[in-house]
Amino acid sequence: TVGAVAIDAEGNLACATSTGGITNKMVGRVGDTPVIGSGGYADNQVGAVSTTGHGESILKVTLARLIIYHMEQGASPGKAADKALLHMQERVAGCGGAIVISAQGEWTAKFTTKQMAWASMEGGTLCYGLNPGE
Amino acid sequence: MKPIIVIHGGAWAIPERLVEGSMTGVKRAAREGFALLESGASAVDAVEAAVRILEDDPVFDAGHGAVLNADGDVELDAIIMDGKTLAAGAICCVKNVSNPVTLARSVMEKTDHVMLSGAGANQFAASLGIEEVSTEELVTQHAREEWGQYKYSDAVSNLFNMEAAHD
Q1: Which residues in chain B are contacts of A23 at CB distance < 8 A?
Q2: How far apart are CA A4 and CA B25, in angstroms?
Q3: What are the residues whose beta carbons fall under 8 Å from the beta carbon of B151, sequence distance 6 or more?
Q4: Are B68 and A23 inside 8 Å of each other by CB?
Q5: What 3-state DSSP class applies to B89?
Q6: What is the mean pLDDT of residues A18-29?
Q7: Residue B120 distance to chain A (closest CA, Å)
Q8: pLDDT computed for residue B155 by the predictor
Q9: Closest Cα to residue B13, out of B52, B61, B46?
Q10: Quick one: pLDDT at residue B7?
Q11: Closest CA to B11 of A47, A6, A89, A125
Q12: Bridge-partner residues for A125, per DSSP?
């Protein structure tokens, strides 16, 4: 699965997520990716999210919208993503990750799997990581 | 507002053979998506362009690089959402399309709907003149070999560090 979130010069937010599924998946099975609020969500008033990970778990907690919900309650993107991913792990034993940008331009990349390749560009600065804490 | 773009290439246990390619791919998508934003493009344009780069890169499980389902076929899913209007477009179980994210954007901008699935989504792609690509073109040799070897539940637990499989 791949995804992107962005904020443009006008302050507009967007998200996109795309996947080829899981090897040997049941024919017709659909995971979280194309489901609004699970594979992604964007609202100029709050933030934009793209998710990745175990699709059925992400669907059960509507991960993208849950992260947005925590941000609506005042959490930073990092804290909102951590809280939502922990909830998913505790409630449905699912692992995954998310990239998030807030309407104020704060961003984060968080995951509970072993790894997640991520990169960001802000000004002239490229940030990137693969393992937890990077 | 200062433009920003953030990219992911999937959260899982990334095999060593894919680590370098994954990092190269996400960095390239971030740079090119950001260049668009700096030139005045919209956030929607930037996320679509960035995801297309990753869909065209066989290192990633999306578009070219997709894995095979139980029938040995490809089924692709994608979503795009515009935070300004809350407009969204999605497609699922689409076959033989290079860039599912662009088809999802067409659902958002050219229909009254949010999601199209399977044969209907492919029919919509054909009506837009989107060129079909063969399954062979979308799938890597490694994905074929993996399909032959993997037991389903093992695949899920190995990839996502967990015991549960699908429901």
Answers
A1: 67-68, 143, 146-147, 150, 152, 155
A2: 12
A3: A24
A4: yes
A5: strand
A6: 91
A7: 13
A8: 56
A9: B61
A10: 98
A11: A89
A12: A122
Residue with tokens 């578009």: B63
Query: What does the pLDDT average to over B155-163?
Result: 58
A59 touches B: beta carbon within 8 Å = no
CA distance A94 to B159: 11
Measured CA to CA, the distance from residue A36 to residue B24 in angstroms comes to 29
Q: Does the interface ipTM go beyond 0.90?
A: yes
User: What is the SS3 assignment for chain A?
Assistant: CEEEEEECCCCCEEEEEEECCCCCCCCCCCCCCCCECCCEEEECCCEEEEEEECHHHHHHHCHHHHHHHHHHCCCCHHHHHHHHHHHHHHHHCCCEEEEEEECCCCEEEEECCCEEEEEEEECCEEEEECCCCC
pLDDT, tens digit, 9 for 90 and up, residues B25-52? 999 999 999 999 999 999 999 999 999 9
Q: B7 Cβ partners below 8 Å, 6+ apart?
A: A2, A3, A4, A99, A118, A119, A120, B26, B29, B30, B33, B50, B54
Tens digits of per-residue pLDDT, B124-154? 999 999 999 999 999 988 888 888 776 555 5
List the catalytic residue out of A1, A51, A52, A112.
A1
Look at residues A106, A1, A101, A122 and name the one whose alpha carbon lies nearest to residue A41.
A101
Question: What is residue B167's predicted lDDT score, i.e. its pLDDT?
Answer: 42
Q: Are B5 and A120 in contact (CB under 8 A)?
A: yes
What is the amino acid identity at position B150? Y
Handedness of CA B91, B47, A50, A37 (dihedral sign): negative
Residue-wise pLDDT tens digits, A48-82:
999 999 999 999 999 999 999 999 999 999 999 99
- Report the gap between the CA of B132 and the closest CA in chain A (Å): 16
* Distance in angstroms (rounded) separating the CA atoms of residues A104 and B151: 45
